[in-house]
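Before relying on records like the one below, remember that each one covers exactly one chain. Contacts with other chains, cofactors or solvent are not represented anywhere in the record.
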Amino acid sequence: MNKNFNLLVLVTIISSITLGSCKKDENNDLNNKCNVSNPAEELDWLKEAIDDVKEDEYAYYAMATYKGKTVFYYGNCNPAANYASTVKNCSGENLGHTDDLYDELTDITILWKHVDSKCNFQQ
């Protein structure tokens, strides 16, 4: 009987460890940020895009979740600016216009902004 109890305990422990390690993290893609630790520096297309606007005190780049995937988009808080922005995936491919997709974006965070940003982000 003691032998069966020990076997049951061992099976329970192994099952718990196995099932616990398979738990899916709902924000896994966002946490991985395209499998890099610093997307603004490590994604070449994004780094280049930021370099193009790095002197603009009204410019910023945001990171968000769209359909369970990490995405990025450009923003500009200059009230006189008229610009178009697109949502891009980790590879830099356009997924659509930011205005069209904005209501579907979640977990929005500011990824980059000018050190003397004129934008007022409520965080």
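The chain has one domain: 26-113.
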